[in-house]
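re: that chain from earlier
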Amino acid sequence: MRNSYLQGGSSAFVFMKKIRICKNGHLVDKENSYLEDRITHIQKRCKKCRLNKVNKCNSKPERMEKIRIYWRGHIKKNPRDKKKMLESVRKWSSKNPEKVKAHQLVHKALKAKILKRLPCRVCKEKKTDGHHPDYLKPLEVIWLCRLHHKEQHRKERLLRPPNPLHQQAQADNA
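^ sequence. v structure.
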C-alpha cells in the first residue's frame, strides 16, 4: 500500500504544488499535461504516454494503409480540408526549401534513371521511400519502406537536441 494514494492517475499536493502520476508512473506537475477524455474528462495517462500509444498503434502497416485510404476519401469529399492540407504543405515547403529541393532532385534522378529505387534496407520491401540522412547531399539516399522510414525519423527526433525557441514558447504558454 506504499504510495497507493499516488498511483493510477491520482493526485496529491507536494510542496503546495499539485502533482499527478500517470498510469505508467510518470510524475506530471501540470493539469494540462493530461489529455481529456470525452466521457470522464480525466485520463489516467499523461499526454506523452497517450501519444506514444497512439503512434505505436498507427505505425502498424495495416493500420497505416487504412488511415491512408480514409484520408484519400475524406479529402475528395471535403474540399475545405483539402485546402487546409494544401496550405499546410505550402507552409512546410516555405519553411524547408532545402528539403523540397532534395526531394525534387531525387524525383528527377529517378525519372532520368540516374538513381534506382532499391528494396527497403531493413525488411527488403519493394515499395520504398528515399530517406535523406543529410539534405546537403541530396542524391545520397537510404531506401526504406514507409514503416521503417517513419521509425527512422522518430529515432532522429529523439536524438535531436531540443529547440530552445520551442521550449521558450512552451514556457510562455505555461
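Confidence is low (pLDDT under 50) at residues 1-16.
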